[in-house]
């Protein structure tokens, strides 16, 4: 290829693989050959894998109060190595009318945001590319028009089997919105790059998704929610992005009866699902960590340790720092990091409205939200 100067092509490529996305986006304007290289799917895949291996950053979303007393979203990229953070601009027109969008997940540089009703956004903060997904393909249930439809669950992740990014939505139909269980549920999937939803008609939703802070997790090719089965047993509901079917994962025996005074968070720790149980209220909280050492096997749940009691900590957010620390939200709206070995808490200079923090592992990438397949 031309325009590499006196550098060998392989050396030039190695240099480009180490550059941040923001620089590469500017370099696309230098000449045609640079544009072709940076836009090439093989280069995009190699650049993504390089950044994955570094595994350096965490994306933190929280709300801030403006001088007019209104809430607005704020995103920060936090370095795992230095505890330093940089605010990034996610310029979405939807923010102006929907300031309370929730962060549903991240995959290969793409984040998913939603108001959990009818607006879902995919965005690559590094490339500034974003897109509002089309409306649901599931209208009111024609057999019984009196049933009330409501989005009950959303999940974003990667289909390892077909190498595609997907969004799954569960729409439940209720006689009354305060009923314990819906009359029925339907499922639809959006595959990135298709610009349309399709209903998955062959599956039955075996449990009803319940809200629990910091629980929704993509792991092992599947998305996971906190749920309750028809016998009112507490379970983890998972949706496999490749097979497009559901699995019910049984929780530890001591959680079989639902207790709404206890919070549960589902995180990933040392390559396993970790369930964290803690009180919903109180100035002092202890956090019990249970790990599923063999995925999907109830008998493999193991109580690993208990953190605390800690004062002024609201909830866990994620494990980080090579899984040796846990990032948490303080009751005053400040991020803190708890070291599992030294049992010390470090205050981070990241602030927000209390109970508004969300975090995901983050890798900066050139992946386009309009691509149908990934070569990664």
Characterization of this structure:
- The protein starts with 8 loop residues before the first helix and ends in a 14-residue tail after the last strand.
- It has helices spanning about 10-15, 20-25, 30-40, 40-55; strands at about 55-65, 70-80, 85-90, 100-105, 110-115, 120-125, 130, 150-160, 165-175, 185-190, 195-200, 210, 215-220, 220-230, 235-240, 245-250, 260-270, 270-280, 285-290, 300-310, 315-320, 325-330, 335-340, 345-350, 360.
- The strands form six sheets. Strands 12, 13, 14, 15 and 16 form a five-stranded antiparallel β-sheet that branches.
- The protein has about 375 residues and is mainly beta.
- The chain is built from four helices and 25 strands.
- Strand 17 (about 260-270) and strand 18 form a beta hairpin.
- The protein is globular.
- About 10% of the residues lie in helices and about 45% in strands.
How much of the sequence lies in strands comes to: 35-45%
Count of β-strands: 25
Structural class: mainly beta
Taking the sheet with the most strands, its summary is:
5 strands, antiparallel
Lay out the secondary structure.
Layout: H1 9-17, H2 21-27, H3 32-39, H4 41-54, E1 57-65, E2 71-79, E3 85-88, E4 102-107, E5 110-114, E6 120-124, E7 129-132, E8 148-159, E9 164-174, E10 184-191, E11 197-199, E12 208-209, E13 217-219, E14 222-228, E15 234-240, E16 245-250, E17 262-269, E18 272-279, E19 284-292, E20 301-311, E21 313-320, E22 325-330, E23 334-339, E24 345-351, E25 358-362
Antiparallel strand pairs: 1-2, 1-25, 2-3, 4-5, 5-6, 6-7, 8-9, 9-10, 10-11, 12-14, 13-14, 14-15, 15-16, 17-18, 18-19, 19-20, 21-22, 22-23, 23-24
């Amino acid at each position: 290829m031309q325009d590499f100067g006196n550098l060998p092509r392989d050396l030039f490529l190695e240099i480009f693989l180490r550059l941040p996305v923001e620089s590469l986006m500017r370099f696309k304007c230098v000449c045609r050959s640079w544009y072709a290289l940076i836009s090439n799917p093989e280069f995009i895949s190699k650049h993504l894998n390089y950044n994955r291996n570094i595994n350096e950053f965490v994306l933190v979303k929280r709300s801030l109060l403006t001088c007019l007393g209104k809430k607005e979203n704020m995103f920060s990229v936090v370095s795992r190595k230095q505890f330093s953070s940089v605010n990034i601009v996610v310029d979405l027109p939807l923010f102006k009318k929907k300031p309370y969008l929730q962060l549903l997940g991240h995959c290969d540089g793409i984040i998913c945001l939603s108001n959990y009703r009818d607006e879902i956004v995919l965005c690559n903060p590094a490339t500034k590319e974003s897109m509002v997904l089309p409306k649901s393909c599931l209208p009111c249930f024609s057999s019984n028009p009196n049933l009330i439809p409501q989005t009950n669950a959303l999940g974003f992740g990667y289909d390892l089997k077909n190498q595609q990014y997907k969004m799954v939505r569960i729409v439940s139909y209720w006689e009354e919105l305060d009923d314990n269980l819906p009359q029925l549920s339907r499922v639809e999937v959006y595959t990135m790059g298709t610009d349309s939803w399709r209903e998955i008609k062959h599956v039955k939703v075996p449990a009803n998704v319940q809200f629990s802070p910091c629980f929704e997790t993509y792991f092992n090719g599947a998305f996971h929610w906190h749920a309750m089965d028809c016998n009112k047993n507490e379970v983890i509901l998972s949706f496999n992005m490749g097979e497009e079917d559901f699995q019910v994962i049984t929780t530890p025996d001591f959680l079989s009866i639902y207790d709404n005074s206890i919070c549960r968070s589902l995180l990933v720790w040392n390559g396993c699902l970790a369930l964290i149980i803690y009180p919903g209220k109180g100035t002092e909280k202890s956090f019990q960590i249970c790990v599923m050492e063999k995925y999907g096997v109830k008998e493999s749940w193991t109580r690993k340790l208990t953190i605390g009691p800690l004062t002024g900590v609201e909830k866990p957010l994620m494990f980080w720092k090579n899984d040796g620390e846990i990032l948490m939200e303080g009751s005053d709206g400040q991020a803190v990091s708890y070291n599992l070995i030294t049992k010390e808490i470090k205050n981070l200079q990241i602030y927000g409205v209390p109970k508004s923090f969300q975090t995901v592992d983050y890798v900066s990438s050139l992946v386009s939200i309009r691509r149908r397949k990934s070569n990664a």
